[in-house]
Design brief:
carbohydrate metabolism; Beta-PGM; binds magnesium ion; binds 1,6-di-O-phosphono-beta-D-glucopyranose; 219 residues; alpha/beta; beta-phosphoglucomutase activity; EC 5.4.2.6
């Protein structure tokens, strides 16, 4: 019996990936890494420092950066990124998601955010969604990122629910793996081939409704 939802943020509630991409692209140019859409894709759901490492590893230059130099690049990216996300408004909530969150709230479901982003509180506030959620998992308090289940296990704690009572919503395969490993029901949003490990798959946020979920859980 489902009693709560654990939401990934980027790609599920808002398309912040486009802003991450713009901000990382500047850093990539600076370190001699060719920016491609597949590089951008590989950074989805990956933590800030791990994303930087992927960009550095793809550089044509032989870089031996100190920890301090890496921290500086990551901070610079985050400054670019924050300048972009302060322009977010409720209009930037992905199609159907405000309706879904609002109806889940009205129907007494608990909700938590399971995002790798340290900027999640700021983004939720920009989108005027903060009050719907029982809490936001603090990614800095985690030992392991997705695909490790830790972040989803913490979200169930925040909602005071058993994992079997939680549906996790994700757009990335690493996130689906994490939800499945947490013993929750995984709901994938995106390409069915890519997200084939998910228990429920919807092509876009628009088809994520309580009615569709109730129907598909029976099958
Ligand atoms: P920050 P999610 C992830 O969000 C993004 O997909 C990923 O591209 C980003 O690097 C990561 O958050 C960390 O974000 O730099 O803001 O801490 O998909 O887990 O909601
Ligand atoms: Mg995501």
């Amino acid at each position: 019996n489902i009693k709560g939802f654990a939401f990934d943020l980027d790609g599920v509630i808002a398309d912040t990936a486009k802003f991450h991409a713009l901000a990382w692209q500047k850093i990539a140019e600076e370190v001699g890494t060719t920016w491609t859409t597949s590089l951008a894709e590989s950074l989805k759901g990956v933590s800030r420092m791990a994303s930087l490492q992927i960009i550095l590893d793809a550089s044509t230059r032989l870089l031996a950066l100190s920890t301090a130099a890496k921290k500086e690049l990551a901070d610079k990216k985050n400054q670019h990124y924050q300048q972009l996300i302060v322009t977010l408004t409720p209009k930037d909530i992905l199609p159907g998601m405000l309706k879904f969150i609002d109806s889940a709230y009205d129907n007494g479901y608990k909700m938590a955010i399971a995002s790798a982003s340290k900027n999640a509180p700021l983004i939720l506030s920009q989108l005027q969604l903060t009050d719907y959620f029982d809490g936001i998992v603090d990614p800095t308090a985690l030992k392991n990122g997705k695909p490790n289940p830790e972040i989803f296990l913490r979200s169930a704690d925040i909602m005071s629910l058993d994992n079997t009572q939680v549906i996790g919503l994700e757009d990335a395969t690493a996130g689906i793996t994490a939800i499945n490993a947490a013993g929750q029901t995984s709901l994938g949003i995106g390409n069915a081939t890519v997200l084939s490990a998910a228990n429920l798959i919807y092509p876009s946020t628009e088809s994520v409704t309580l009615a569709n979920i109730a129907h598909d859980m029976k099958n």
